[in-house]
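S.,

Sequence below, as promised.
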Amino acid sequence: MKLVGIISTATLSLLLGIAAPVYAQQEQQDEKKGHPEQQQAKHEQSKSDPQHAQNPQSEPKQQQQERAQQQQRQDENKQQERAQQQQRQDENKQQHAQQQQRQDQNKQQERAQQQQRRDQSKHQERAGQQQRRDQNDHQQRAEQRRDNERPQRTQEQQRVQRSAWEQHRSQRWDSDHRTWQQRGGYNGYRIPDDRFRGYFGQEHGFRIYGLPFMVVGGYPRFQYGGYWITAVDPWPEYWGNDWYDNDDVYVVYVDNGYYLYNHRYPNVGIAISFSM
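The prediction came back faster than expected:
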């Protein structure tokens, strides 16, 4: 029995060893021949995709071309973006340069205007100083001419005139002074207007020194412009002691009456009366 089992096992192994190579050889032949179903499926697939069947390497080349085109578009976009950015930077620099140029022009113009104003101020100041010097020289020469043209008074005349004016000096101007309205109105001689404009008014100043002088009723009287002028009011106590010799005076007609004003003290006028 044991012998029979051993022989059966050996026989089975021998059969399997012979069958395996034969089966493998048969599969190889079948693969070479191919199954009709598989060959038909491959044939249909080649019909549905003829490009793939004709050129199996066309798909990788197309992808490479697309990537190359995509890369080219990216490069072009980057180049265009850099160009636009550079253009914006150049425009900003140009705007900054123009702004700086305008600021420099404004500063230069302002400095020129300031210098012009300073020059004008200096010119005006020098012109004003020269004008004041000329006026002072003219005034001094005029005073000198008047002094030279003054008629010589005797000591007796000087004493009489000084005494008359001194007695007519006010002790308290506010209470001693009276206007023509307070006096009841002007009742002296009225000078014709054309005659008055020719000899009197603020622009026609004169000095009492050297003019014909007399005392009538205790009031000082002097002659000017062809008329006798009588000082009705006393003169303010704060006027200079010799104002009638050294100060320029003028006559105006205001508030229905004539008044004598002193250029040195132009705020007050003393009432006067005219006579032929």
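Residues 214 and 221 are 5 Å apart (CA to CA).

Coffee later?
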